Request: fold
Amino acid sequence: MRKYWNIIWFFGFFLVSLPILAQQNQVDSLRFWTAPDYTRLVFDVSTSPAHEVFLLNNPSRLVIDIHNARLKQKLPQPPASHPLFSRIRSAARNGRDLRVVIDLKAPVNPKSFALKPNRTYGHRLVVDLFTRKKKRSVAARKKNPRSTGRPRDIVIAIDAGHGGEDPGARGPHGTQEKKVVFAIAKKLEALIRNYPGMRPVMIRKGDYYIGLRKRMQIARRAKADLFVSIHADAFKNSRVKGASVFTLSRRGASSEAARWLARNENAADLVGGVSLDDKDDVLASVLLDLSQTATQEVSQSVAKQVLKNFRSIGKLHSRHVQKAGFMVLKSPDIPSILVETAFISNPDEERKLRSHAHQRRMAKAIFNGILGYFRRNPPVGTRMAAVKHTIVRGETLSGIAQHYGVSMKRLRAVNAMNSTRIRVGQVLSIPTDS
Ligand SMILES: [Zn+2]
Reply:
């Protein structure tokens, strides 16, 4: 009899303790972040999620099975206009798992991973749905701005820091860095677009995350002359304030604070997701050494101009251009600067960062700095580099061509002329690179 009691005891203990040992995962909420080439789904979960993700056909569906999990509240539905999916359903499976089924509108390649808790979020399950690429190269080739004989625009790549699942730093009143830097970036974009001879390219066009390396790739594809990354600083001490401008350092950060900052900004890739393409670090550093000296000089000069313009709108955090090892600046061929516009951790500057008027002042300071540099050092072949010639009585096109050592054909192409006829007072652009 005593023996049986032992067995009953044993099983009783086992039955009660099983759910405690294998802790059930609570699926709390779901967010979507839609970028041009993928959509990121983020589930908030209570523990690290064991899961499977796979596709089903006819009709096309995405299935996400989360083991030993249950839903805490109803999942949100995507807007009807969402490019990738239309409906999200969920149900219990095998009595203990949770199955989420998403109806797809387009073919996707799913990729999933778990993220550990950080300052903003707890455990997360991330599912990235990449749209399958269509024939893209044809369109890209058509857009190449350097294939015509005409002087080109100076291209400025504007990188609003963070985005999507990565909010960046947070102010004492809850202001998110990703939002204010995007607002400043949009204002800078407008200033550049309205300036003849310059063209802006936004690295992120909305509230979604882009890996640090991908940001540089987008700038390179756009053949950018300059890469400007816009951020807002944060520090433990809320009294610290002011703007600072950084360039990349090959030999390490110029100050302890710069090192600390670089660690924080680079950590964004861990916050926003995993970077799968970090394996070429050795190759990248070799390329860096080969060709960075020239671009570093440009970066340094532009940074100085931007810093000078920030001085006129408020206190600077550092009077000198700082150097730090930001991953986002590691481009061997594009001069790059990183602007920490203000300290979001300072209540006064947090308020300023939210003000449209102040955002405009900061955008203008960055713009004036960029313009100041390129006016003095216009790259060869750009509209800003072109010499202007105003035609006076008695001149001919062939005479002007001879004078500047440019072919007639080139001169006509550059000025979009159908004939060789010119008139007094007409202003011609003279290319300086031939
Ligand atoms: Zn930042």
In short: The mean pLDDT is 81.
